Each structure stands twice: as structure tokens, then as C-alpha cells.
From TrEMBL:
It comes from Euzebyella marina. This is Aminotransferase class V-fold PLP-dependent enzyme. Its cofactor is pyridoxal 5'-phosphate. One of its GO terms (molecular function) is transaminase activity. InterPro entries: PyrdxlP-dep_Trfase, PyrdxlP-dep_Trfase_major, SelA-like. Gene3D superfamilies: Type I PLP-dependent aspartate aminotransferase-like (Major domain). Belongs to the SelA family. It holds the Pfam family SelA. The modification N6-(pyridoxal phosphate)lysine is found at residue 241. Keywords: Aminotransferase, Pyridoxal phosphate, Transferase.
């Protein structure tokens, strides 16, 4: 089998599936397999290995990279490349894959937010790119719905811009003035007082670029195409969440002139605001490989696999008296996938969900779940989408054992 074909075949292998037919040339092993390095760096440095039975979280190192991504990183690490050419060509390819004008790889969605805002402020003026965040004159303004304010909008104000809050579409239109540079939509906001369509329409009417942050909003895969179709000028997704690219990578895509301006505000240029947000060559190749694998995956099959993982953990923990499991499908837009809700009769099993959560986390191996709420009652939520295949039964057995230990 030629190597190219081997890599192509790999993208057809479900993430949890067997990789037995994997060629020897792919030296780096992914999460689906045992590591091959002679040095155990976790051991050498005393770092605790964590089983993530929750969702992608930056503090838990995001996602685990796919075999294709690790191969892209390893196989491109041995030659130099011109970073402008790499970013341009990978961007053009990603734009073709996502059916939009232009794209680039950033160091995460938060970086994409800084670069998008900077691009809307500076355009192609190189002098201005050197002055952010201290551009002379009135502060640039970014429009947001009041109900969309969130922790990540810090990335917007990093550029020197200030956020102008609005409550409805008419207010939005009225708030737009000569200092307005962009309008930001937070896709996973709990409440929107302006719909996506209305937001885009008003921004277009006033000739202000619209930007949507959909960082954690795949699956479904369709979301990668949805917002450019709606008319948003710029879109970002994290690379290191469910697309399973490098955790330090992300996608920014949309209007060509704005992507070109965003590149001027990024490394490898020496002085713009994005210089400290460098993406390395291997991450750019890795992000491309991750997206290609993600788009090529059998998403229905993967969903079924997640459901069967939930079922298998449920059947093990339900063997403990008084314990019930229930399949939960998060409605999204962020983290829209199945997990297992576990609850129990606390008069029989003397522990609350937080205590079971702690016991799992502090045990060996360390398993991180989360405590969720349903109808005002706390329960334990067990995530399955980030588990390696052999970890499904480990999680089930550990949880069963801990629950059993608390039976009175
Ligand atoms: C995760 C996330 C970000 C930040 O993304 P990174 O890729 O970690 O930089 C921004 N916005 C939202 C809504 C997110 O969920």
C-alpha cells in the first residue's frame, strides 16, 4: 500500500476503532493505541494521566489528536517551509473544503477573535497593525447583544476595541457609527434578542463585518458550513475541541479581504498584536489534517458508537442496587453529543454526586466526570466521546465499584 493511500484509508477508520492495518511508517501513536516512546514522560515528570469522561476543556488539555494529525505533525517536522506560503496554501485548501472565500489557521478560537477584530480595525494598513492596541483616536467599537457578553469577549477588547451592548435589532442599527468596526455573535449564548439572520441583515445594511464565534459547536458537522451560508463575514471554530486537531490551533474563515488583513495582524509578521499568538508549521499541517479527517468521517456511525458506549456503561452501573442511568443528548449548540446521566437513591447509597465525582477524580486512574443538574436535582454526568475505546469499561467498572462502596 502506498503511503498516500494508507493515510487516506486511515481517515475512514472510526476513532474508537481498531487501527490494526496501520502501516509502520506512522511512527507516532494516537490516543487509540498504547504509546511507543521509550521514555514515559508522564512518569518521569510525575504528571497524573487523566481519563476525560467529560467534554473538551482547555485545562484538561482539550482533545486528543487523531492519528492523522499526529502523522501530519511528525512527517512535516523535518523540513523548513516559508510560513507565508504555508498559511496561504493551507488556508486556500481549507476555504475550498469549507466552501468559503478564504481561511487561516490561528492559535485557537480566542486568537481568531483577536485577529478578526484587529483585521476589522486595520484592514490592510501595515502601519496600523503596528499600533494596536494603542491606535490613536477614538476607540474602535464592536457591537454585541447584551445577552451575548461572555468570558471570551476579553479577546475583542485586547485589540483596544470597546464593546457596545445592544438589546434588539433597531438598537443595533442605531448604535452603528463611524467608529464601529465589527458585530460579534456568540453562537452558544443562552439567549439571543436578535436572530442570526436579523443580525447579519442589519450588519450588512450598515456595511459592518459580522463575525460569529461557534468555537465548540461541532458536532453536527453541518455547522462548519452553516454560518458562511447565512452571510456571516467571519467564522471561528476551535481546532482542539471535537475536530480533534492540535489544542493550540483554530480556524478563522470567511471574507477574503478580512482574512488577508487578519494574516497581516498575525505571526510571522514581527510587530502586530497577533505575534505572540504564533502557530507553528506542524500545527498548521495538523489542523489541516484534522479538518480533512473530520469532514471525511462517518458521523452517523460515530454517533451510534457514542450511544453504545453510553449503553454499556449504563448496564454496568445499573447492576448496583438503586442506581439508574439515562442517556442524555445535550441539545447544544456547544457539546451537542450523548452522555450518561447517573442518579441513585441517596437513602440507600450514602453519597451525593459531588462526592462520587471527587472519588472518581482522586482515584487511580483519575477519571474526570461532571456534576449536572436535572429538575433542580444534582446527578453525575459521564461523558463518553473523549474516551479511548478500552477506557469505556474502565470508567464503568470504577464507577460501579465506587457506588457499591457507598451502599449502606
Ligand atoms: C473554547 C471556546 C473559545 C476559545 O477557543 P480556543 O480554541 O480554546 O482558543 C472561544 N469561544 C467559545 C464559545 C469557546 O467555547
Amino acid at each position: 500500500m502506498k503511503r498516500r493511500d494508507a493515510v487516506k484509508n486511515l481517515s475512514l477508520v472510526p476513532i474508537a476503532g481498531s487501527l490494526m492495518c496501520r502501516p509502520e511508517s506512522l511512527a507516532l501513536k494516537a490516543n487509540d493505541e498504547k504509546p511507543t516512546s521509550k521514555i514515559d514522560y508522564f512518569e518521569e515528570l510525575g504528571i497524573t494521566r487523566v481519563i476525560n469522561a467529560n467534554v473538551t476543556m482547555t485545562f484538561l488539555s482539550g482533545s486528543l489528536m487523531l492519528p492523522e494529525v499526529l502523522d501530519a505533525i511528525n512527517s512535516t517536522a523535518h523540513d523548513f517551509a516559508n510560513m507565508h506560503e504555508l498559511q496561504d496554501k493551507v488556508g486556500a485548501k481549507i476555504a475550498e473544503m469549507l466552501k468559503c472565500e478564504a481561511a487561516m489557521v490561528t492559535s485557537g478560537a480566542a486568537c481568531a477573535m483577536v485577529l478578526a477584530t484587529a483585521a476589522c480595525i486595520t484592514g490592510d494598513d501595515l502601519e496600523k497593525t503596528k499600533l494596536l492596541p494603542n491606535l490613536p483616536g477614538p476607540r474602535p467599537e464592536v457591537i454585541m447583544q447584551k445577552s451575548h457578553r461572555y468570558v471570551f469577549d476579553q479577546a475583542i477588547t485586547t485589540t483596544g476595541a470597546k464593546i457596545i451592548e445592544v438589546d434588539d435589532a433597531d438598537e443595533m442599527e442605531k448604535a452603528i457609527n463611524e467608529n464601529t468596526v465589527m458585530a460579534l455573535f456568540f453562537n452558544a449564548a443562552e439567549k439571543s434578542t436578535i436572530t442570526h439572520e436579523e443580525f447579519v441583515a442589519r450588519a450588512k445594511k450598515k456595511n459592518v463585518p459580522s463575525f460569529i464565534d461557534a468555537a465548540a459547536d461541532v458536532p453536527p458537522v453541518e455547522n462548519l458550513f452553516k454560518f458562511q451560508k447565512m452571510g456571516f463575514d467571519l467564522v471561528t471554530f476551535s481546532g482542539g475541541k471535537m475536530i480533534r486537531g492540535p489544542q493550540s490551533a483554530g480556524l478563522l474563515f470567511g471574507r477574503k479581504d478580512l482574512i488577508e488583513a487578519a494574516k497581516l495582524n498575525h505571526s510571522p509578521h514581527e510587530a502586530p498584536i497577533g505575534r505572540p499568538m504564533k502557530v507553528n508549521k506542524e500545527e498548521i499541517f495538523g489542523m489541516y489534517a484534522a479538518l480533512k479527517a473530520y469532514l471525511g468521517r462517518d458521523h452517523k456511525k460515530e454517533w451510534q458508537e457514542w450511544l453504545s458506549r453510553v449503553e454499556s456503561i449504563k448496564s454496568v452501573v445499573e447492576s448496583v442496587a438503586g442506581v439508574t442511568g439515562e442517556t442524555y443528548i445535550n441539545p447544544g449548540p456547544a457539546n451537542a453529543f450523548p452522555s450518561l446521566h447517573v442518579s441513585w437513591n441517596e437513602s440507600k447509597l450514602k453519597a451525593n454526586p459531588k462526592e462520587i465525582y471527587e472519588a472518581l477524580k482522586n482515584g487511580t486512574p483519575s477519571i474526570v466526570t461532571n456534576v449536572a443538574k436535572k429538575d433542580g436535582k444534582q446527578l453525575l454526568n459521564v461523558g463518553v466521546v473523549l474516551l479511548r475505546e478500552e477506557q469505556v469499561s474502565i470508567v464503568a467498572e470504577r464507577l460501579k465499584q465506587i457506588l457499591q462502596d457507598h451502599l449502606s
